[in-house]
Amino acid sequence: MPPTHATQPFGSAIARSDATSIRIHGLDLCSELIGHVTITDFVALELRGRIPEAGERRLLDAFMVTIAEHGSTPSTIAARLTLLGSPDQWQSAVAAGLLGAGSRFLGSMGDCARLLQDPAVVPQDAAGDRAATVVELAGGPVPGIGHPLHKPDDPRSLRLFALARELGAYGPACATIAAVRELLHERSGTRLPINATGAIAAIGSDLGYPWPTLRGFALVARTVGILGHLAEETRAPMAQDIWDLVEGLPPHA
Predict the structure, then answer these.
(1) CATH code for the structural domain at 66-247
(2) Whole-prediction pTM value?
(3) From CA 186, how far away is CA 180, in angstroms rounded?
(4) What are residue 53's phi and psi, to 5 degrees?
(5) CA within 20 to 30 Å of 139's CA: 30, 33, 219, 234, which one?
(6) Integer distance in angstroms from the first to the last C-alpha of the chain?
(7) What is the pLDDT of residues 197-226, one digit of tens each?
(8) E strand or H helix at 22, and its extent?
(9) Each residue of 154-199: pLDDT tens digit?
């Protein structure tokens, strides 16, 4: 028997076009979006299906500004080296940089949010009880806690939490990550900071964003940072010097 198919049209419901209009999530591109919304609004629209309120937009902007640029990291070095091999293929270089977004870089934001949003954590009333469950679920180092440079506090997290309080977005997930930090301090005697990805995971969870979409914001933001490094690579290249260093050669003349 031939396979049966659903009667509804196949395809995405995100965007629809005809001869005279384009609608995205039900909004007319030309009359309701172009010139009316920011790129942050549009990212939220794509990831969550709605335009954020003003306070939420400020926080989403803050998330992406916080994590866009981190200097010469493995992702930006990979992007520069890829551009060296394919100088006319910026998309390949950007892709190379984004492929490094994993559990150690950027991905910890999603990992932390996944713990904070776990069904075993969310129903509990007390922040201390939620924190104990988060630590138990992590089974080891808790993503979003600790930083090799910023100690005893991560200045980015301090600013993000202050902004969340100012905008009324400091909720149970933020209280939970703060309690996680205190619990780990109590158990280990070492006071580790809540890092930027932990702060974003907590605030984003309190804003109602499912953990995979928070990784989406991270990827958009880091794309901007990678593009900045590629622009610098065209002006002041370092990729050849990195290659020569690995090969044990003197700096490229």
Answers:
(1) 1.10.230.10
(2) 0.89
(3) 10
(4) -70, 170
(5) 219
(6) 69
(7) 999 999 999 999 999 898 888 899 999 999
(8) strand 22-24
(9) 999 999 999 999 999 999 999 999 999 999 999 999 999 999 999 9
